[in-house]
Each structure stands twice: as C-alpha cells, then as structure tokens.
Amino acid sequence: MGEALTREWRPDWPCAATAVLAQQRRGAGDPTQRTDLCGRVWRATRTPDGPATLRVEQHAADGLVVGTAWGPGAAWTLETMPSLLGADDDPTGFEPLHPAVAEGWRLRPHWRLGASRRVMEALVPSILEQKVTGKQAFGAFRQLVLHHGDPAPGPVDVVGELRLHVQPAPATLALIPSWEWLRLGVEPFQSRALVTACRVADSLERLVDVGTDEFDRRLRSLPGLGVWTSAEVRQRALGDADAVSFGDYHLANHVGWALFGHDITDEEMAEALEPYRPQRGRAAALACAGGRTRPRRGPRMSVPTHLPTRGTGRRTR
Q1: 8 Å CB contact between 111 and 102
Q2: Residue 282 in 3-state DSSP?
Q3: pLDDT in tens, 10-44
C-alpha cells in the first residue's frame, strides 16, 4: 500500500474545502469521491505518476487544511492540492452588475473554482452527461468506475468501506466493447466520443498549460466534443471562471429567473453575461445562488432506454 504522505496548508482566504471539492463530484453515488462520517473528503485520482487517494480534512478553528495521500501519485496530489481547492482562482476585478449576482456574492464572498489539472478525469463523466438525464449519466459513470476502474490505494478498511475507486485508465476505456457500453447505459454517440478521446489522452493531459482559449479550441477539434462539454471540463480541470455551459438543458432558464424573473435563451444569457467576461461562469453561478429560483413545473424528462417502446429524455449539448 505504501506509506502515507501528509501536507499542511493554510489558505490566505477562508477556503471552504468541502464546498470546493463538491464541484468535482458527479452525483451522490460518485465512487471516486466520498465523504466519511467525520466530514473528511476522500478523493481517488489518476495522476501523471499513477493512482492516488487524497484525504482532505479542514480545521475550521484555524483555517488549516490537512491533506493525506496514498499511492504512487501521492506526492503529486499533495503538491497540487492548493489548486484543487481554488488557490489559482482569482476573483480580483469581479464586480456584480445585477442584484442577484450581488446577493450571491454577499452570500458566498469566498467562492472559488478548484482546478484538478486532470483532463480525462473531467472529460469522461462530462461525455457521459451529454444529451441525457442526470440520473442516467451519474448511474452510467458509477457503474463504469466500479466495473472497470481500480480500487483506490490507501487504508484497506476505509477505502473498502467507502468503495472508493479510481477512474479506468484511458487504455482500459478504449478496449471496452460496444455491447458493454450499452449494458452500462452509455449511448453509442457517447462511447464513440470517449474512445476517440482516450486514443489521444496523453496529448489532452498536456493541454492544462496552454491557456483556456487554446484548450477550448483543441478539445473541441475532437469529434463529439462541443461547447457544453468543453465548458464542463474547463470548469473542473482548469478552474476556468469564464466557462459557461451553453447548451445546458437548465442553465439559461435558471440564470434567466435569477436575473430577470423568466426563462431566457442561450443567446440572451450570453448577452447578459458578456459584461462579466472574463468571469462569466462566476457571474452565472453567483446569480443562481443569489437570485430567484425557477418554479418547478412542466413535464419531467424520462430516463433514456434502448427499448423502442419508451421515450427518451434529452438535454442539448
């Protein structure tokens, strides 16, 4: 198993480590990230040096964050822990221009986006979330990780109890047959995009330092990866505060209700958020946190199925 490594880090702002890490979680059943009964977050990841498990514990009294890591990638994980917890996200110059954004900023003055610096880790679940319901996407990701991923390194009793797993390696994903993808609930257009990305995984991982615009351009040059997928990856892998998930089934309407009290289109959302560039994603998130909530009404999407007798719900990606 290897000896555990530990790092103590004191952020220069009131970092809410648990809330920042929640941005990386894909549903309550995500087997790559769990929270134990003591409130410590356990996160399994595949680093450039190999698999690792990071346990993050925050001491609220003095603001100290203690990271403990196991596995071949333990040192890399601890080195990049501040970035993961939002240390590279700089809100300097951000000014709320709408009452809802101002209220969200008041409620969450220390809100930050963390950067995992792991592209495939963010890309795989993002592809699984394309054009399907959240329930189906989270379920497919959970089954994919549990059936084809690896048990996380670390204390056997804890990681075993938490069922903590590392995502499958790209080489493993590329060899999964089409029938197995279907059994996992993954649509053919998703599995094609996934396998194509896995074949250039090493090149994609090197994009973390090319800048957000160039990252977006290169990622979207791959078939099956569009504006929405790129934004979802940039938010989590790069901590890009300007990334907005245009094409999302819900986001424009949530932002519309927060800012104006009614549904809006993606084009109207883009116009409303444009003055916040280069922090449009931050503005959208704070608007949703501080503004009015969209009423729950209308038909719910059904979970997609491969049976021809049932309808399928779709989200635009």
Answers
A1: no
A2: helix
A3: 999 999 999 999 999 999 999 999 999 999 999 99
